[in-house]
From TrEMBL:
Documented EC number(s): 5.3.1.9
PROSITE patterns, sorted: P_GLUCOSE_ISOMERASE_1, P_GLUCOSE_ISOMERASE_2, P_GLUCOSE_ISOMERASE_3
Taxonomy of the source species: Bacteria, Bacillati, Actinomycetota, Actinomycetes, Kitasatosporales
Recorded metabolic or biological pathway in which this protein acts: Carbohydrate biosynthesis; gluconeogenesis; Carbohydrate degradation; glycolysis; D-glyceraldehyde 3-phosphate and glycerone phosphate from D-glucose: step 2/4
Top EC class, one word: isomerase
UniProt cross-references to InterPro entries, sorted A to Z: G6P_Isomerase, G6P_Isomerase_C, Phosphoglucose_isomerase_CS, SIS_dom_sf, SIS_PGI_1, SIS_PGI_2
Biological role stated in the UniProt entry: Catalyzes the reversible isomerization of glucose-6-phosphate to fructose-6-phosphate.
GO molecular function, one term: carbohydrate derivative binding
Protein name as it appears in the record: Glucose-6-phosphate isomerase
GO terms under cellular component: cytosol
Residues the record marks as active site: 358, 389, 513
The keyword Lyase belongs to this UniProt entry's keyword annotation: no
Length: 549
């Protein structure tokens, strides 16, 4: 580990501070657009099927040039190349970071410790494909010989959010004769609701856990096994037909009683939140079929190639990462909204929360020194137009600056039928209107000109200058979904590189896990916990007395 200069001490950082304090003290998008007729065209980048307009940002050419200089100074592309080469850039876990190898073509060569990992990736993909085909065709039967009609993915975090999000996103491409459920929460209600109307004889559980030690997943999988055995007469050998595992930990999988032949492997160089295109995608592959899954991987690869090869000025993940840094570090923005105008992307922002906040929610740098600069933002959002009738008020007129991504598609999915498809223009009109209103607002003069009484003018004025990126694509296909995810993966990477943090560890989730284990006996048995703080002790006592009432 070598000490890298703090980003804030770099002249490129100071130059951005000066630029903000001087040229961009009160940036005005109306003026910026008026002064530059080519702005919309120039500040648009195309990657694969994605059309990305970043013209409604509080930037000019100088801002972009200064941000690029910061990226150069912090060697973002150097770290990018190291990641793609398989170097151990996850320094605190001493691991390579190679989710990009999961979508590499069969003939690629990517080495970890001198071994080309690509053949192993494709061997697992082939095994997944064969299995998915058998389930989809009905050839894979349950213990009683009935075909599988229900697939329940049990996993949490990166072993849940990706497949659950993508299943929703790609519903029109899924086998509609199969039922898919996703169980993550250790709250027994989650499993209960997932299986209460299912027939165990027709149900396949996919237990997804990189470590196979995650307490929520193991607890739910154990309960699911009991449910299954209770429904199938208690015959242990039924488990082999109804449980498969996705994991890096063969020993624990076998210990749980799952046949190693029914385990789909991945590797420690795949981070949990970057694992959805590994074996962790099996439930999705069963849902959409192997060919569509490979289209998804192609989509990821399109953006990987772009991130590797596109020049800095038109490199979309780099640009989006740098724009985030502009607001985070130079405007004190605390959060970032992701607002998909697609019902099918209802879980997309939840997925991005883990991707972004678990990656960049760090307060020490790669050398372990406390950071003196803001790192990852709070990521949040729900699909439009619902959010418009809930929290957009704050986006438009609140005191906080919240940069937002608006994501929409030119075409609704085919199966909607004419009448529902006709609603699509209205949906997208809302997306465009929001971007417009956020950027350009409505001046007091414009409000007055409408005859609004003077005492209401201030209330009905919109200051505008709320930055957005608009991402458009023709339709939400597997490939487009892969492109979108890779875009955000690499954006998060860029930000972590500039901030000099390890975006690939997650030590911040450990303490709560340890404390939960310690507190549990106090709840179940009333055990005394030495050193328990007074507040928690009193809460535990109250809980027990309410429970035993
Ligand atoms: O607790 C956080 C975390 O480790 C995530 O990073 C991960 O995606 C999730 O838990 C699930 O872990 P596993 O796949 O090992 O069960």
């Amino acid at each position: 580990m070598s000490d890298v200069p703090k980003p804030t001490l770099r002249p490129e950082w100071t130059a951005l501070q000066d630029h903000r304090a001087d040229v961009m003290l009160h940036p005005d998008l109306r003026e910026l657009f008026a002064a530059d007729p080519g702005r919309a065209e120039r500040y648009t980048v195309r990657v694969g099927d994605l059309h990305i307009d970043y013209s409604k940002h509080l930037i000019n050419d100088e801002t972009l040039a200064l941000l690029q200089e910061l990226a150069t100074a912090t060697d973002v592309f150097g770290l990018r190349d190291a990641m793609f080469r398989g170097e151990r850039i996850n320094v605190t876990e001493n691991r390579a970071v190679l989710h990009t190898a999961l979508r590499a073509p069969r003939d690629a060569v990517i080495e970890v410790d001198g071994e080309n990992v690509v053949p192993r990736v494709h061997a697992v993909l082939d095994k997944m494909s064969a299995f998915a085909d058998r389930v989809r065709s009905g050839e894979w039967t349950g213990h009683t010989g009935r075909r599988i009609r229900n697939v329940v993915n049990i996993g949490i975090g990166g072993s849940d959010l990706g497949p659950a999000m993508a299943y929703e996103a790609l519903r029109p491409f899924t086998a509609r004769d199969l039922t898919f459920r996703f169980v993550s929460n250790v709250d027994g209600a989650d499993l209960h609701e997932a299986v209460r109307d299912l027939d165990p004889a027709e149900t396949l559980f996919i237990v997804a856990s990189k470590t196979f030690t995650t307490i929520e997943t193991i607890t739910n999988a154990t309960s699911a096994r009991s449910w299954l055995l209770a429904g199938l007469g208690g015959e242990e050998k039924a488990v082999a037909r109804h449980f498969v595992a996705l994991s890096t930990n063969a020993e624990k999988v076998t210990g749980f009683g799952i046949d190693p032949d029914n385990m789909f492997e991945f590797w420690d160089w795949v981070g949990g939140r970057y694992s959805f295109d590994s074996a962790i995608g099996l439930s999705l592959m069963v849902a959409i079929g192997p060919d569509r899954f490979r289209e998804l991987l192609d989509g990821f690869r399109t953006v990987d190639k772009h991130f590797l090869n596109a020049p800095a000025e038109s490199n979309a993940p780099l640009l989006l990462g740098l724009l985030g840094i502009w607001y985070d570090n130079f405007f004190d923005a605390q959060s970032h909204a992701v607002l998909p105008y697609s019902h099918y992307l209802s879980r997309f922002t939840a997925y991005l929360q883990q991707l972004d906040m678990e990656s960049n929610g760090k307060s020490v740098d790669r050398d372990g020194h406390p950071v003196e600069w803001q790192t990852g933002p709070v990521v949040w959002g729900t699909p439009g137009t619902n959010g418009q009738h809930a929290y957009y008020q704050l986006l438009h007129q609140g005191t906080k600056l919240i940069p937002a991504d608006l994501i929409g598609f030119a075409r609704p999915v085919e199966e909607l039928g004419d009448e529902l498809a006709a609603q699509h223009d209205l949906l997208m009109a809302n997306l465009f209107a929001q971007g417009q209103a956020l950027a350009f607002g409505k001046t007091a003069e414009e409000v007055r000109a409408e005859g609004v009484p003077e005492e209401q003018v201030a209330h009905r004025t919109f200051r505008g200058n709320r930055p957005t990126t608009t991402v458009l694509a023709k339709g939400l296909t597997p490939s487009v979904l892969g492109q979108l995810i890779a875009l955000y993966e690499h954006k998060v990477f860029v930000q972590g590189a500039v901030w000099n943090i390890d975006s690939f560890d997650q030590w911040g989730v450990e303490l709560g896990k340890v404390l939960a284990k310690r507190v549990e006996p106090a709840l179940t048995e009333g055990a005394a916990i030495p050193g328990l703080d007074a507040s928690t002790a009193s809460l535990v006592a109250t809980y027990r007395s309410l429970r035993n009432d």
